Amino acid sequence: MISSNLPALQVVLPLLGAVLTALVRRGQIAWFIALVVSWTMPMIAFALLKQVLAEGVVSYALGGWAPPLGIEYRVDLVSAYILILVSLMGALVVSYAPRSVASEIAPERQAWFYTMYLLCMCGLLGIAITGDAFNAFVFLEVSSLSTYVLIALGRDRRAILSAYQYLIVGTIGATFYVLGVGLLYVMTGSLNLADIAGRIGDIDNIRPLLAALAFITVGISLKVALFPVHLWLPNAYAFAPSVVTAFLASTATKVAIYLLLRYLFSIFGVVFVFRDLPVTEILITLSVAAMIIASVVAVFQANVKRMLAYSSVAQIGYITLGIALATQTGLTGGIVHIFNHAVMKAALFMAIGCVVFRTGAVKIEDIAGIGRHMPLTMGAFVIAGLALIGVPGTVGFVSKYYLVAAALEKGWWWLAAIIVISSLIAVVYVGRVIEVAWFRDPGAAIRAAREPPLEMLVFTWILTAAIVVLGFDTELTAGIAGRAAEVLLTGMK
C-alpha cells in the first residue's frame, strides 16, 4: 500500500514536516523533524527509481481522478534523477545545518528557518514529480516564496535587499511561465504535460505555439539564472545564511533546468525546438557568454561566496550548452553536470560555511593562512575547487569530457576550445583562494581559528569524497544521465 503511494509521499511528507516545525517553534526540535523528513525523502526517491527501472514510467492519479482530467504525478528516469539529487542534497545540508544555523540565525527564527526549508524542499520535489503544467507553477511558487524568506534570514542587512531583488525577478519569471502555460491550454485544452505533448503536433497555427515557447523559456530562464538574466543570483548567494546558499546552489537552479528540459524536449519536441527554430544558436551563444564572462567576473570578486556565485552562473552555462547541442552525448553531459555541479558547489559552500562559523570571514583577504589552522576544511575546498576546474579524477572532469566529446562530434573544435579556456579561467579564481588560504601569513583572528564541529566537517567531507568517487565510478551519475537523455530525445510517451 505504501509503495503505491510513494509519489504522493514525496511531496506530502515535507509539507507536513513544515507544519510541525511551525507549530513547535523550538529550533532544536524543528531541526530534528527536518532531519527525519529529509532523510526519508532520498529513501522514497531511490524506491521510485527502482520502480521506474523495473516497470517503466510511474503514474499516480491524485484523488482518483484519472489524467488528463485530474492532476498526475509522473516519474520517469529524468524526474527520478532530479528527485534523488534534491532529496540527497537536502538531507546532507540539513544534517550539516544545526551549528551553522545557530550561529547565523537568531534563536526565535530558527524554527521558521526549518519550516521554510521544508516548504522549499516540498516545492522543488513537487516540480520534479508533477505531470501537470499548472501544478508545476504552484510548486514553483511554493519553492520561490520560501526561498525569499530563507535568503532574507541572513544576518547581513543586504540579505533583505537580495531577497527583494530575487522576489521581483522571480515574480516576473513566474508570470511569463504562467502566460505560456495559458497559451498551451488555449491551444490544446489540457494542462497534463503528457496530454499536451500528444496534442501539440495537431496544431496548425504555430504562432501561439511560438509565443508559448518563448514565454515559458524566458520565465524558466529567469529561475535558472541563465546569462544575462542572472543578476539576482550573486547577491542571493553572497548574503544568505551559509546553509541556505549550500542548499539553493545544489538544488534550486537544477530543478528549474529540469523544468526547462521537460518543456524543450518532452513537450515541444526536439524537431520543433532545435531543428525548425534557432534555439541551438541562441542557447550556445548565451552558454558561451556565461562560461567566459561570468568566470572572468568571478576572478575579480573579493567575497568568496560571491565568487562562487558567479562561478555557478558559468557552470549553468555548461549545462545549457549540453542542452543546446541536443545530441545524446551533449545532453548526457548537461544532465550529468546538473548532479556533478550540485555536489561540487554544495561542498564548496559547506567548506566556506565552516570558515564563516569559526571566523565570520567571507572576504578572500580575510582568510589568509587559514589552511594552516583549518586544514581539513580547506582541504575539502581544494578538492571541490579542482573539480570545478575539471581536473581528471573528479566529477567536473566527467561533465566536461562529455561536453567536449559532443562538440567534437559536430566538428566544432572552436567550441571544445572555449570549454577548455573557461576551465583555465576557473584555475585563476580557484587558485586565488588556494594561494591566499595556504601560502599567506595568517592574521590574529585566523591564528585563533580551529576546525569546525565534527558534524559540519563530516558532511562536508562526505560530499568531497563523492566528488572523487563519482569521478571514477560514473554509473550512478553518467549512466543514469545517459538513459535520461534517451528519454528526453525520444519525447514523452
Which features would summarize this protein structure in a list?
two-stranded antiparallel ribbon, 493 residues, mainly alpha, 79% helix, 21 helices
The strands making up the biggest β-sheet line up spatially as 1-2
Judged by helices, strands and strand pairing, the structural class is: mainly alpha
What's the shape?
Answer: globular
Radius of gyration: 21 Å
The main sheet comes to:
2 strands, antiparallel
Number of strands: 2
- How would you state the average pLDDT, rounded? 87
Q: Order of SSEs, N→C?
A: HHEEHHHHHHHHHHHHHHHHHHH
Name the beta content range: under 5%
N-to-C span: 26 Å
Helix content: over 70%
Poorly predicted ranges (pLDDT <50, ≥5 residues)? none
Continuous helix count = 21
Characterize the quaternary organization of these chains: single chain
Sequence-ordered SSE layout with sheet pairings:
Elements: H1 6-24, H2 27-55, E1 58-61, E2 72-75, H3 77-104, H4 107-129, H5 133-152, H6 158-188, H7 193-199, H8 207-224, H9 232-239, H10 242-267, H11 270-275, H12 279-299, H13 304-325, H14 328-359, H15 370-373, H16 375-389, H17 395-409, H18 413-439, H19 444-447, H20 454-472, H21 475-490
Give a brief description:
The protein has about 500 residues and is mostly helical. It is built from 21 helices and 2 strands.
Structural overview:
The chain has 493 residues and is mainly α. The protein has a domain at 278-493. The chain has 21 helices and two strands. It has a two-stranded antiparallel ribbon. α3 (77-104) packs antiparallel against α10 and α5 (133-152) runs antiparallel to α10. The longest helix is centred in the C-terminal third of the chain and has 32 residues, at 328-359. The radius of gyration is 21 Å and the shape is globular. The two termini are 26 Å apart. The mean pLDDT is 87.
